[in-house]
Amino acid sequence: MKLYYSPGACSLAPHIVAREAGIPLDLEKVDLANHKLADGTDYYGVNPRGYVPAIRIKDGEPVLTEANIVVQYLADQKPDAGLMPKAGTPERYRAQQWLAFVATELHKNFSWLWYKDTPAETKTAVKDKLEKRFAELDSHFKSNDFLLGKTFSAADAYAFTIINWVNFLGLNIKSFPNLQAFMDRVAARPKVQEALKAEGLIAA
Are 95 and 85 within 8 A, CB to CB? Predict the structure, then answer.
């Protein structure tokens, strides 16, 4: 399988899940500013939406997109890794609930902060909303190591990836110590370290 990624983008989530599950991936870096691959190929030819992640499962088939879906697909390829609960169980729906929360309440809101033409008042409103979500997570992590309790899951990989954007956008979560502790716990995982190093986000 081939993962189309950009360093530190939401494609980091499936990258982490693949490494945690022991799934080998070919990594294809995407220049999101110009929507080009390293060889100059137009990335829109791979994913018409122009963003990452996209994963090529088989040649000749459409790529699979959307971070919250891609992480589930990868986790399901190696169920013994325990990165997603078994389909049909209450725990599975709880994990999917968290994935949807990250996608809509964190990922989508953070997206406004990347655009230079986003009005200042919109950015202020978005930051206020993110603060409320950070507070909710901080409360959750007061008694839970991970989103599903004591077990690391694909949802944690996605949450870690998106919340890590505070480091690129001049924000911080210092006032949320439990959330910061969660980020530190995830960052310390050996496979997460591997993914961060492979994307050049920390020194090898």
Answer: yes
Query: 2-5 and 26-31 as β-strands: parallel, antiparallel, unpaired?
Result: parallel
Helices H / strands E in the chain, number of each: 8, 5
Q: Name residue, tokens 């009005």.
A: 119
User: pLDDT value at position 58?
Assistant: 92
Residue type present at position 176: F
Is the CB of residue 8 less than 8 Å from the CB of residue 199? yes
Q: What average pLDDT does the chain have? A: 97
Q: Could you give the C-alpha distances from 165 to 21, 104, 162, in angstroms and in order?
A: 24, 15, 6
Asked, as a colleague might, if the bond just before 53 is cis with ω within 30 of 0, I would say: yes
What length is written for the chain? 204
At 68 the three-state DSSP class reads helix
